[in-house]
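User: Sequence in, structure out. Go.
Assistant: Echoing your sequence, followed by the structure tokens.
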Amino acid sequence: MTETLGSVPPRRRTGDEPLHWEGAAKGRLLGFWGWAYSGLAGNTLRGALAEYIVALALEAADGTRVDWDSVDIRLPGGPLVEVKSAAYLQEWSQSEPSGISFSIAPAGGWDATTGEVDAARLRRADVYVFCLLHHRDKRTLDPLDLAQWTFYVLPTHVLDRYRPDQRTVTLSSLLSLAPVRTGFPGLRGAVLESARPDGVGRTPQTQGAEAVGAGG
């Protein structure tokens, strides 16, 4: 067999593509998307939505999301960006809002641009964007409303210095590291500023410092 078993790069679709049988359309891709991917408050889809929102802010949403890449967003000639999300409200019934924490674990990586696997456990992005869906009323929860999100932007070197081996970070612990807090309009500037070696000039507080509230 001469052909290789290389990757199958995703191509961006419109939703109008048919599901077909012997040349006859039996449905449309848009219908599948609506059926499978409407639960935006769930942990899995909320994470993908957060990545898309950040990509929109960075003007990097024209392509397609690459599963299992070692970073979430690659800006051409710019920083590598890791996106994490959390929310107070979940799809299921709750007795109280969820506590907020984000994954920051160093990890091995697969580079989607080269196909190479690197077993070294480290943080590969230049900047982390922590996306908090801060809305607390399930009756009006709308993950598509960008005003219901708060973003915390932090250079990776701050995590590596102050939380080198930590796997998760609570909101209060994150705030003690003095991230840039912003809404959607300021997100692009915050990421680009944080990617500069001298981009964040504030000094992190001690780990036990009282955190500022996350907004509501």
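User: And one key feature?
Assistant: Residues 206-216 have pLDDT under 50 and may be disordered.
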